[in-house]
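Researcher: We're teaching a course module on how sequence relates to structure. For the next exercise, students receive a sequence and then see the predicted structure as tokens, so they can try to spot secondary structure elements on their own. Here is the exercise chain.
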Amino acid sequence: MGAQRMGMSVGVLDHFNIRTRKLADTVRFYEDVLGLEKGARPNFAFPGAWMYSEGKAVVHLVDISATDEPQKPDSGVVHHVAFVSQGFDGMKQRLKSKGMPFDARQVPGGDLWQIFVNDPNGVMIELNYEAAKEQGGGAPAERHDDVGAR
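Model: And here is the predicted structure for the students to work with:
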């Protein structure tokens, strides 16, 4: 309560960062599968890429292949990263056409449709679609189990 009253706010999430030994595969996933765009990045002393959605660099990638840092098998204590998305049926078709395994579900109550897909590093990506804004297509099955149980 105190921070808000003092005129301070953490604000909204800006980006997430992935340290990877699979930079090319990871860039390809975010471009070809999710539709983000590789864009401008400061001239850091280490290789990497910034991936943009709607003009914002929301995924920062750091290439650790030249280091001794081991590749983590998943996102560790951070279970998944979620995006507010549009075009549920289009994304399902895109994932199917690329042979990407995914899980589509409806949050209990029906207002939110979701797609879960893993990037090449094992980071789980959650795509959230507001049911009322989605055109046509079939709603996914309502599921009462939480994806966090996986």
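Model: If you want an answer key for the exercise: Helices lie at 2-5, 23-33, 88-97. The first strand starts at residue 16 and ends at 20.
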